[in-house]
């Protein structure tokens, strides 16, 4: 395929139905296709990733005047559609964009959507860079054209266990609760393995259905067994449901750790002061000392974002933005928009930027030694980094106050 397959002259810098066109007709525009949950169950985090995509495109177009590749200047454009958190709708939209000649794709949010859509782009010889799918199945089935900013799910828990081992009083027993979906189960499996290898007992390993409406019976078991830490590898809405029902049933644990949910403004708004003390993962912090030519630094990314967007900043925005940067850097290194040349450059990418040290494994997921999660905790309404210690902004609050004392 020649590069014209991946360019659109005067293409709209647009998310369908969401942003107006600002590209001028005489400009060559690199258009990124894909879908994102703007509505539906995954919309809270999907919109965060979308705003990260928008932020990077706006900065490169307006502050840097575009990007030069192979001696030619290009603007960037987005052609992203609302998949409504529905894998079937997403696959239809992605296939349509493949048929239209889009070559560079950004990922949706949720492994249940990334898995089928990256299968389409892979089969068509296109590329997907994404910050929404961490299931091992994305990266262990021989794909060569999908890249993930995060490590695969089974390798995401090392830093968490390292933090658990530093807590006082000592952590002796942990319960794990997970939903039966492509991401959460792999993450729970990796968590259990890493926890047990550290000599900590896993006393409960509880599978929930993919769609959860009630966990009251499960919480009876948690109260009876009294773990030191309850780990929930669950998505946003389920995490909120679990916390609400823990409050309602007075199910207290010294540490509640939920891998997705507590990072979001929606979780905070739903739970108020009950969100304080909950621990979660974050793959980026504006307090980190990362720097690069884009945005300048982690802190300056946060400043630029706050000056231009009104949606509350989370690490998902930074993760979305760095997907764009990965493409741009790879194309600059390749000196070309040829899809195979960009793919090869992505595979070999080794780049320090405002997000951190960006490098992929041979299978395409984020290098776990470089792109693994920080641990954060809501404390007095603010999100504080509690591990690793060298970048921590606060010490863990452990044991956490009872729900009654947080009201």
UniProtKB/TrEMBL annotation:
Q: Which InterPro entries match?
A: BCAA_transport, Leu-bd, Peripla_BP_I, TAT_signal, TAT_signal_bac_arc
Q: Name one Pfam family in it.
A: TAT_signal
Question: Signal peptide position in this chain?
Answer: 1-25
Biological processes per GO annotation: amino acid transport
Where the record annotates domain Leucine-binding protein, the positions are: 29-363
Q: Which UniProt keywords apply?
A: Amino-acid transport, Signal, Transport
The UniProt entry's sequence similarity note says:
Belongs to the leucine-binding protein family.
Write the protein's name. Answer: Leucine-binding protein domain-containing protein
Species per Swiss-Prot/TrEMBL record: Borborobacter arsenicus
């Amino acid at each position: 395929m020649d590069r014209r397959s991946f360019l659109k002259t005067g293409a709209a810098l647009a998310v369908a139905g969401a942003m107006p066109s600002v590209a001028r007709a005489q400009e060559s525009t690199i258009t990124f296709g894909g879908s994102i949950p703007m509505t539906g169950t995954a919309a809270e985090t999907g919109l965060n990733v979308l705003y990260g995509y928008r932020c990077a495109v706006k900065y490169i177009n307006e502050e840097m005047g575009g990007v030069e590749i192979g001696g030619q200047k290009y603007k960037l454009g987005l052609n992203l559609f609302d998949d409504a958190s529905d894998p079937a709708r997403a696959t239809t939209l992605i296939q349509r964009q493949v048929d239209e000649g889009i070559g560079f794709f950004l990922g949706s949010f949720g492994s249940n959507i990334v898995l089928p859509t990256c299968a389409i782009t892979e089969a068509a010889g296109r590329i997907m860079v994404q910050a929404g799918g961490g299931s091992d199945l994305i990266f262990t089935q021989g794909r060569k054209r999908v890249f993930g900013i995060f490590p695969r799910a089974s390798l995401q828990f090392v830093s968490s266990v390292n933090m658990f081992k530093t807590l006082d009083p000592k952590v002796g027993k942990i319960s794990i609760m997970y939903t039966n979906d492509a991401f959460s189960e792999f993450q729970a499996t990796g968590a259990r393995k890493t926890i047990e290898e550290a000599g900590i007992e896993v006393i409960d390993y509880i599978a929930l259905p993919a769609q959860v409406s009630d966990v009251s019976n499960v919480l009876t078991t948690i109260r009876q067994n009294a773990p030191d830490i309850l780990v929930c590898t669950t998505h946003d809405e389920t995490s909120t449901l679990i916390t609400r029902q823990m409050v309602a049933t007075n199910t207290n644990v010294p540490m509640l750790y939920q891998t997705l949910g507590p990072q979001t403004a929606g979780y905070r708004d739903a739970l108020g002061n009950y969100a304080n003390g909950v621990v979660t993962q974050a793959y980026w912090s504006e307090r980190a000392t990362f720097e690069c030519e884009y945005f300048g630094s982690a802190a300056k990314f946060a400043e630029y974002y706050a000056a231009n967007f009104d949606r509350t900043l989370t690490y998902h925005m930074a993760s979305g933005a760095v997907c764009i940067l990965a493409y741009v850097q790879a194309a600059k290194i390749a000196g070309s928009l040829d899809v195979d040349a960009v793919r090869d450059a992505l595979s070999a990418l080794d780049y320090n930027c405002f997000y951190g040290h960006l490098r992929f494994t041979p299978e395409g997921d984020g290098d776990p030694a470089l792109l693994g999660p920080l641990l954060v905790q809501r404390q007095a309404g603010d999100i504080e980094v509690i591990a690793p210690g060298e970048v921590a902004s606060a010490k863990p609050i452990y044991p956490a106050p009872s729900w009654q004392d947080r009201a």
